[in-house]
Amino acid sequence: MRTTVTLDPDVAEKLNRYAHRNRISFKRALNELVRRGLQAQRQDAEKTPFQVVPHRGGFRPGIDPNRLNQLLDELEVEDFAHEASESR
Predict the structure, then answer these.
(1) pLDDT per residue over 24-80, tens digit each?
(2) Fewer CB within 10 Å of terminal CB in the chain, N or C?
(3) DSSP structural state of residue 39
(4) Has residue 41 been placed in a domain?
(5) Is the full-model pTM beyond 0.90?
(6) What residues contact residue 18 under an 8 Å CB cut-off, 6+ apart?
(7) Is 16 part of any domain?
(8) How many domains does the chain have?
(9) Is the dihedral of CA 9, 12, 18, 21 positive or negative?
């Protein structure tokens, strides 16, 4: 089939380099790379989709979720005290 294709300059340059490097015609290079791209697209569509397996979340025994803000406050105070002592 004969058709006209308008390529962006960067794509045309890459195709020219590919054809030159592989010692093939521009037409053959274009066909090879289009086939490769279409094949990769089909393979991506055939892959099984990623599935998330949910699990029960929760805290370890002994951790009170109602006191997490207090723990965060204590950690921030420790960080502040550590940074203050380093700056002296």
Answers:
(1) 999 999 999 999 998 887 776 677 778 899 988 888 888 888 888 888 898 999 999
(2) N
(3) H
(4) yes
(5) no
(6) 29, 33
(7) yes
(8) 1
(9) negative
pLDDT at 86 (0 to 100):
84
Place of tokens 């791209």: 37
Q: Using the predicted structure, report yes or no on whether residue 88 has a pLDDT greater than 80.
A: no
> How far out from the chain centre does Cα 14 lie?
24
Residue 37 in any domain: the answer is yes
* Boundaries of domain holding 13: 9-46
Residue 49: what pLDDT? 78
- The length of the chain in residues reads 88
Question: Identity (one letter) of the amino acid at 64?
Answer: D
Asked if residues 16 and 22 have their Cβ atoms less than 8 Å apart, the reply is no
Distance in angstroms between the alpha carbons of the first and the last residue of the chain: 78
Q: Report if residue 74 sits inside a domain.
A: no
